[in-house]
Amino acid sequence: MIKRDFGTTGIQVSALGFGAGQIGDVKISERESEKILNFILDHGITLIDTARAYGLSEERIGKYLWHRREEFILSTKVGYDVNYHPDWSYESVSIGIDEALKKLKTDYIDIVHLHSCTVEDLRKGEVIEALEDAIESSKINYIAYSGENEALNFAIQSRRFHSIQCSINIFDQRTINHYLYDAKDQGMGVIAKRPMGNAPWRFKNQPAGDYSEEYWKRMKKMNIDSDIPWDELALRFAAFTWGIDSCIVGTTNIEHIKRNLEIIEKGKLPEDVVDNIRGAFLQNDFNWISQV
User: Fold this and answer.
1) How far is CA 186 from the centre of its chain?
2) Domains delineated in the chain
3) How far apart are the first and last CA of the chain?
C-alpha cells in the first residue's frame, strides 16, 4: 500500500482509506464488521474515517480494533446530536469528542472533523475553540473540517485547521480548481471523500432521488470516452490527483476492497486521460458546486 505524508502533520496515511459509515448499519452483523475491519488493517489500509452520525460505526471500531490501535490513523467527526445542547455549540463538540473516545476505546483520536457545519457556525468560532481545547487536553492530535464550497474555503483561509476532507472525484472537481492549492500551500492534510462519485455508472437511466443523481447528470454531460472501467477510472483519478493524501471508500464487501487495492496499485492514470477528464469538467462546469 502506498503511504503518504499527511500534509505537514508528521503522520502518514495510506493512499486508500476506509470510510466506515456502512459498517455502522445495524443490518451488518457484528461478525461481518469485525472481519472487514481487521481485513483492511491486514492489507495495509491505515486510515479509518468514521463519524458520530454513522450508527454503530464508532462503537464497532472500538470493539474490534482497540487492540490494534497503534496500527492505524483514526478520524471521526463531531458537532451535533448531543443531548441538551444545541448543534454546533462548544458543548456539542466537546461532549461529542468525549463520547467518541469512549466508544472508540482509545485515549486519543488522531483527526477530528467538524462535520459539514455552515460557514456561519465556523465564523462564530466556538466550535473551533472546542477542538483547540481538546488538543490542549491531549484528547485529539489534529483538528479538521469536513465540508464543501464557501465553508471549506473559510476553514482553509482561517489557518486554524490542520486538514480538510472534501468531495473530490471525476464529477466533482470544484475543490481541485479553487481550494486545493491554498490548502496544500499551508501544509494541510487532504482527504478525498466520494472518490467513486457514488458510482452513477450503475444506472442506465437517471436515478431519481438516488444519492448519485447529481453526479449521474454530470457524467452524461461530460461524456467521457475511455476503455478503462469506470471504477478504476474514478479511483485512480481521485487517488492520484495532486495534493490528495488519501481517498476514503466505504463498503461492506471484502471483494470490493480487494478490487480497490488492485486499482490503487496501478498508479496514476495516463496524462492524456487525466487531461480529458479535467477538460470535460471545465467545459461543462455551469456552477457545478461540490456536493455535501
Assistant:
1) 19
2) 3-284 (3.20.20.100)
3) 28
Pairing of strands 246-249, 3-5: unpaired
Max distance between CA atoms of the chain, in angstroms, equals 54
150's grid cell: 464557501
pLDDT recorded at residue 95: 96
| Distance of alpha carbon 65 from alpha carbon 157, whole angstroms | 35
* H or E segment to which residue 249 belongs: strand 246-249
Pick from 69, 25, 27, 78: which is nearest to 48 by CA? 69
Residues of the chain with confidence (pLDDT) below 50: none
Number of neighbours of residue 270 by Cβ within 10 angstroms: 11
Residue 5, strand partner residues: 12
Q: Which residues contact 35 (CB under 8 A, 6 or more apart)?
A: 254
> Amino acid letter at 76?
T
Nearest-angstrom CA–CA distance, 141 and 145: 14
Which pTM was predicted?
0.94
C-alpha cell belonging to residue 133 = 481545547
96 contacts 85 by C-beta, under 8 angstroms = no
DSSP 66: G
